[in-house]
Design a protein that fits this description.
The complex is a heterodimer of chains A (about 130) and B (about 260). Chain A is an alpha/beta fold. Chain A has six helices and five strands. Chain B is α+β, with helices and mostly antiparallel strands and about 260 residues long. Classes of the chains: A alpha/beta (about 130), B alpha+beta (about 260). Chains A and B meet through helix 2 of A and helix 2 and helix 3 of B.
């Protein structure tokens, strides 16, 4: 169990695909993390109003508000500033992750261990 | 020449099959297929393939992760609630992936004229009854009262089934009530499938950059446009409905 998981670090998972959302939350909860979930950027901003997560796992292509617009909105908010983002995308283009200032990029379908390693590394440092 | 070809073709071993599309005749690339709709331009093609990859990677991810989580469970836990949830998740993802793969490769093969077809008289009500009978969750039943039992199209049954299945699925999005009506005119049968409002540019070549389709039907219309063209027909969007025009079969008209 990583330091982040042991301390019950909160991870906000943002993805419009309900099964992807379920699977990632299942993986993280199984490791001891707390999770909040959102189906698009607007829901993610609402979630940020309730509790500040240690990390945001962010899909890019979503309805209502996509990942790029969410990241911009996050930068514009004082409360959201500094929360690390890891982009999780089926796009396969890491340049887009760089464009939102993400700390990491995971191309779907990524390995569960790769996800856990990134989450552990970032939440432990948070 | 046609009969000779059919004879020679039937003598070939290892005849290709694609799902239920039967073989007797190799089609040429559809003559009325507008060149602009075929994603051959490198940028358009790249954007299209990026879209396909994106659509497939999401269910592939879910299938892989849920299977791995299932494998990590103790054998005695696999039959429990979490095991059932994971196996259901895996199955849904694979079913979604299957639809995408079938639609993608059928469309690709139609684009290169690589699908052998066997035209026959196809009673449309029979095909639609079978589609309507498929479980659609809590969705309302498909209204087929506008399709007379003797209306038939002339074409490959497997391809017609795929086109109608796609149209009914797309019209039924969001559990919308689907109504189908058929009419005959000048040796052609016109089918109107109404329900959920078609998206703007619903029949355009899909491009990378749109959110995932949760039903696996992201390529359904892309495939159906090509299938209709191969059937010497067309698929259009008109007055908020999907409209297919196909050659009428002998039962419903004079026949081809």
């Amino acid at each position: 169990v990583s330091a982040g998981a042991a301390s019950g670090a909160l991870v906000l998972v943002v993805d419009d695909d309900p099964d992807i959302l379920d699977a990632i939350c299942d993986i993280l909860e199984g490791e001891g993390y707390r999770v909040a979930r959102a189906r698009h950027g607007v829901e993610a901003l609402e979630a940020l109003g309730r509790e500040r997560p240690s990390l945001i796992l962010l899909d890019l292509m979503m309805p209502v508000m996509d990942g790029l617009a969410f990241a911009q909105a996050l930068r514009d908010r004082e409360t959201g500033g500094g929360i690390p983002i890891v982009v999780i995308s089926a796009d396969g283009n890491p340049q887009k992750a760089a464009s939102v200032g993400a700390r990491g990029f995971l191309a779907k379908p990524f390995d569960i261990e790769a996800l856990l390693a990134q989450v552990a590394s970032i939440t432990a440092a948070a | 020449v046609g009969l000779l070809y059919l004879w020679l073709y039937s003598r070939r071993s290892g005849v290709e099959r694609v799902n239920s599309v039967s073989e007797q005749r190799v089609i040429e690339p559809p003559p009325d297929h507008p060149p602009s709709e075929t994603p051959t331009d490198p940028d358009l093609r790249s954007g299209f393939l990026g879209f396909v990859a994106h659509e497939m990677r999401n269910p592939l991810s879910t299938a892989l992760w849920s299977a791995e989580l299932l494998a990590r469970l103790a054998p005695e836990d696999r039959g429990g609630a979490r095991g059932e949830k994971l196996s259901g998740m895996c199955l849904r993802a694979l079913q979604r992936l299957r639809i995408l793969v079938e639609d993608h490769f059928l469309a690709e093969r139609l684009d290169v004229g690589g699908i052998p077809l066997r035209p026959e008289n196809v009673p449309l009500r029979d095909v639609l009854d079978a589609i309507a009978a498929k479980a659609r969750g809590g969705a309302p039943p498909v209204d087929l009262s506008g399709v007379a039992p003797d209306v038939a199209a002339w074409g490959d049954r497997g391809l017609i089934e795929r086109v109608l299945d796609a149209a009914v699925a797309m019209a039924g999005r969001g559990d919308a009530r689907v109504t189908v009506a058929a009419s005959l005119e000048d040796g052609r049968v016109s089918l109107r499938v109404a329900g959920a409002e078609p998206a703007p540019e619903a029949l355009a070549v899909p491009r990378k950059g749109t959110p995932s389709d949760q039903t696996g039907r992201a390529l359904a219309l892309h495939m159906a446009v090509r299938a209709c063209a191969a059937l010497d027909g067309s698929l259009t969007v008109k007055d908020g409905a999907y409209v297919m025009s196909l050659p009428a079969g002998p039962q419903g008209a004079e026949g081809p």
